[in-house]
Amino acid sequence: AVWREEPEGPVRMIEACQSPVWDTCLATIALADGGLPADHPALVKAVDWMLDEEITKAGDWAVRRPGLPPGGWAFEFHNDNYPDIDDTAEVILALRRVRHPDPVRVDAAVARAARWTAGMQSGNGAWAAFDADNTGVLPNKLPFCDFGEVIDPPSADVTAHVVEMLAHEGLARDPRTLRGIDWLLAEQEPNGAWFGRWGVNYVYGTGSVVPALTAAGLPTGHPAIRRAVAWLAAAQNPDGGWGEDLRSYDDRSWIGRGTSTASQTAWALIALIAAGERDSETARRGVAWLVETQREDGSWDEPYFTGTGFPWDFSINYHLYRQVFPLTALGRYVHGEPVPGRRP
Questions:
Q1: Whole-angstrom distance between the N-terminal and C-terminal Cα of the chain?
Q2: H helices then E strands: how many in the chain?
Q3: Which residues of 333-344 are buried (b: 16+ CB within 10 A; e: fewer)?
Q4: Residues of the chain whose pLDDT is less than 70?
Q5: Of the listed 86, 87, 152, 245, which one is catalytic?
Q6: Residue range 238-264, pLDDT digits in tens
Q7: How many CB atoms lie within 10 A of CB 320?
Q8: pLDDT attached to residue 2
Q9: Which residues are bridge partners to 134 per DSSP?
Q10: Residue 7 has what pLDDT?
Q11: Which of 199, 246, 262, 309 is buried most, with the most CB atoms less than 10 Å from its CB?
């Protein structure tokens, strides 16, 4: 939560990009978690749209993976050169939540995308957003690269989404998945959290990793899961919610600290539910915060930036985050988590 002075009158703001694929897959997952029937027309229509957006030609990523067949999804409209691993993993998870009238078409798209995603694994066992092994430090030293991250190293949140997807595709024991799990366990912070590259920040990273590890078969009693639960409990605000200030990217004293927000509270709850803490007092207070702060129209307000472009230098306000993640968290609180491998 960064202080800002509200302007008077109309203002113009730069929109760096739009995120329809990302928004659509997250909304699909949220609606399924919220109890919408798996064959609901809205979900089927969303799947039709996502299938039409599939990328089936090679792009820049093929420089490092020249023999890898294409497949997957990008973040925005009409972007056939830069599919990204994060979107692709989440789209697959979304497709698997819907009972589509053409399952053969869905299965084929998922097979292509899962193969491509697995093939984009970096040498250390983790996954980045757009490329494999894009870890050189020289670009960061160029004079005009003073605005944030200009390379694409693997991150815990993206790796977690891939591990979760592979687990749901029946590949929890695949060597690539196991290497990803090992990398995630090694990347856990001493305090029990994980860094969030594409969302603010350790609450996002932890909210991504814990569900992935449990989906892949780690027991909820695993030491890494228990450390994460303890950190989330310690980071909970007195009002029952969670928040994390953008300054946590620049100042470690802000890790896990900030005004409660709907999306960050939801991320914490998603992790707690995955860790078997549904009936805990910590989870109950988080759910109560979401219920109490919901507006009459069913939405939540969120005046703070909780999305990340370049850590600390470029932040993103995803207007759907404040809606889809609380719906996912509350839906899983009521209905339970999706079971890996189970089709609707």
A1: 39
A2: 11, 2
A3: beeebbebeeee
A4: 1-7, 145-148
A5: 86
A6: 999 999 999 999 999 999 999 999 999
A7: 17
A8: 44
A9: 152
A10: 66
A11: 262
Q: Which amino acid is at 48?
A: D
**Beta-strand runs (E) in the chain:** 307-310, 314-316
Q: Rounded to whole angstroms, how far apart are CA atoms 49 and 63?
A: 29
Q: Tell me the three state secondary structure of residue 299.
A: coil
- Contact yes or no for 19/318 (Cβ under 8 A): yes
**Euclidean distance between CA atoms 265 and 255, whole angstroms:** 15
pLDDT, position 170: 97
Three-class secondary structure of residue 199 per DSSP: strand
Residue that the structure tokens 């990793």 belong to: 209
User: Is residue 80 annotated as part of the catalytic site, yes or no?
Assistant: no
Q: Give bridge partners of residue 199 from the DSSP assignment.
A: 307
Taking alpha carbons only, the member of 282, 260, 264, 263 closest to residue 273 is: 282
The whole-model pTM stands at 0.95
Amino acid occupying residue 343: R
Per-residue pLDDT, 12: 79
In whole angstroms, what separates CA 94 from the centre of its chain? 12
Query: Hey, what are 291's tokens?
Result: 């219920």
Q: What is the DSSP letter of 322?
A: H
- 199, amino acid identity: G
CB 152 within 8 A of CB 133: no
